[in-house]
Specification:
mainly alpha; 9 helices; nicotinamide riboside transmembrane transporter activity; transmembrane; NMN_transpt_PnuC; membrane
Length: about 200
């Protein structure tokens, strides 16, 4: 079976709810890059659909991950709205030391998780799967705090995730994450240009 035939089969196998979830997920990333608070309602509905779909397809870990995203969508919505009431939640940055420590911590958690799961699951990509999952959790939290570097993490995460899904035959999802990668670069540029010191220099 050719690549295009596999891609067509995967597209035909999609449910209507999955299509809605994907569209809202794309809207979330685009709106987040624009710092529009409507990104969080989009994320909320998208992750709620994915939570149900993964649970219905007996993928409890993925369902649990999306429940986390759902809770972060609620928190991000509240936090950004609170910031807007206080004349806008500004984009901020964290120190290299902070990111260095967090990267080491996330790597340790990822390795520990993958090692623990290796006794239950047999997969050639278990460590990469754990790495993408843990760093996605961390980057999502940074997004809720409007930390600029969250987009840098997403560039790397989306590239790794796209490769992972491609290797496992999930071509549609891989293409989606390639699109996410482009949005991450766009978001990084948009947020960087909107930082208070950049805006002050421009005026």
């Amino acid at each position: 079976m050719s690549f295009w035939q596999q891609l067509a089969e995967q597209w035909n196998a999609q449910s209507g709810w999955e299509v809605v979830a994907v569209i809202l997920a794309i809207a979330y990333v685009w709106l987040a890059a624009r710092q529009h608070i409507a990104c969080w309602p989009c994320a909320l509905v998208s992750t709620a659909i994915y939570s149900w779909l993964f649970w219905d397809n007996t993928l409890p870990m993925q369902a649990a991950l999306n429940v986390y995203y759902l809770l972060m969508a609620l928190y991000g919505w509240w936090h950004w709205r609170k910031g807007n009431q206080e004349r806008g939640l500004p984009v901020s940055r964290q120190s290299k030391t902070f990111h260095g420590l967090m990267i080491i911590g996330c790597l340790m958690v990822s390795l520990s998780m993958a090692y623990g799961l290796s006794w239950v699951f047999i997969s050639d990509y278990l460590y990469l799967d754990a790495l993408v999952t843990v760093f996605s959790l961390y980057a999502t939290y940074l997004m809720t705090q409007k930390v600029l570097e969250n987009w840098v993490y997403w560039v790397v995460i989306d590239a790794l995730a796209a490769w992972l899904y491609w290797q496992t035959g999930l071509y549609l999802t891989s293409i989606l994450f390639i699109g996410y990668l482009g949005f991450a670069v766009y978001g990084l540029i948009q947020w960087y240009d909107s930082m208070p010191e950049r805006t002050a220099n421009a005026t």
